[in-house]
Amino acid sequence: MKNFISLADVSDPKALVQEAIQLKKNPFADKALGKNKTIGLLFFNSSLRTRLSTQKAAQNLGMEVMVMNVNQDSWGLEMMDGVVMNGDKAEHVKEAAAVIGQYCDIIAVRSFAELKDRNADYQEIVINKFKQYAGVPIVNLESATRHPLQSLADCITIEEYKTKPRPKVVLTWAPHFKSLPQAVANSFSEWMNISDVDFVVTHPEGYELAPEFVGNAKVIYDQREAFEGADFIYTKNWSSYKNYGKVLTQNPDWMITMDKMLLTDNGKFMHCLPVRRNLKVTDEVLDSPQSIVIPQAGNRVWSAQVVLKQILSGL
Ligand code: CP
């Protein structure tokens, strides 16, 4: 693997999931692989899980880790070419990415969608600029349109918890008062489309995801109908793609409650976290045995580790 920016960088996603599950049994077996290698983790946005799990994964592989909060700890970065840099951005990504590439063997980047200009966000300017100028492999820690390390952890979790060969997986929108990116939902849909699952997406009208991410999913606008017989309920809020970045409704009827979970086939509740309790999901669901959000977050280590292992193996 040369980079890990999207599913397209993975030659065999199902084998990658199985490799992660094996690696989890013996986490320090590849400690020599990362000796004298450095990963730089660059955060344009906040993080708990991605930051700590990727550090842990790199350390399990014997790597050195450098972490930087871009725009807070460093200079503001200009992404556009040909501009007169007379504003608040003191350094161009051309130099910054190339310089960080001198210090690091792998660079991992988190940069969320700004949700102002759909074309700009869906061009993935930040992560693609790093790929263009860094000269070393790039790992996506959540970009404008995708969160593939999360999706890989989700696939590992579904593989571990499934009770039938082809489970029914439902991605459901849940209410939130803020405008949130589509990245997690997009990426989850992309990975579910190539998994051995019956994949259903449910959301209020107006929250349709981009067609290239929905793929062959069955879209059902009635949440209760979508939940019937489900094995996994994957909950996420996202803002509108069509009416880009807008919050069209905060309808609390879309919150995940135990009476909806009772429609499932003893379905497991999943969420990438962080989650706002009693806004998107009730305490009762989140604190129930049906919730697997903690082992799901735990699997972020193994998704990061298997990706870094594959990249290191090719250096
Ligand atoms: N799920 C996830 O990416 O968590 P963080 O935003 O805390 O990294």
From TrEMBL:
UniProt keyword Amino-acid biosynthesis, yes or no: yes
UniProt-annotated binding residues for carbamoyl phosphate: S47, L48, R49, T50, W75, R110, H147, P148, L149, Q150, C272, L273, R300
GO molecular function, one term: N-acetylornithine carbamoyltransferase activity
Domain Aspartate/ornithine carbamoyltransferase Asp/Orn-binding: 184-309
EC number: 2.1.3.11
InterPro entries per UniProt: ArgF'-like, Asp/Orn_carbamoyltranf_P-bd, Asp/Orn_carbamoylTrfase, Asp/Orn_carbamoylTrfase_sf, Asp_carbamoyltransf_Asp/Orn-bd
Occurrences of domain Aspartate/ornithine carbamoyltransferase carbamoyl-P binding (ranges): 2-160
One Pfam family this sequence matches: OTCace
Domain of life where this protein originates: Bacteria
Swiss-Prot/TrEMBL catalytic activity: N(2)-succinyl-L-ornithine + carbamoyl phosphate = N(2)-succinyl-L-citrulline + phosphate + H(+)
Claim: Amino-acid biosynthesis is one of the keywords in the record: yes
Keywords: Amino-acid biosynthesis, Arginine biosynthesis, Transferase
Enzyme class: transferase
Protein family (similarity comment): Belongs to the aspartate/ornithine carbamoyltransferase superfamily. SOTCase family.
Quaternary structure, from the entry: Homotrimer.
Protein name: N-succinylornithine carbamoyltransferase
Source organism (scientific name): Xanthocytophaga flava
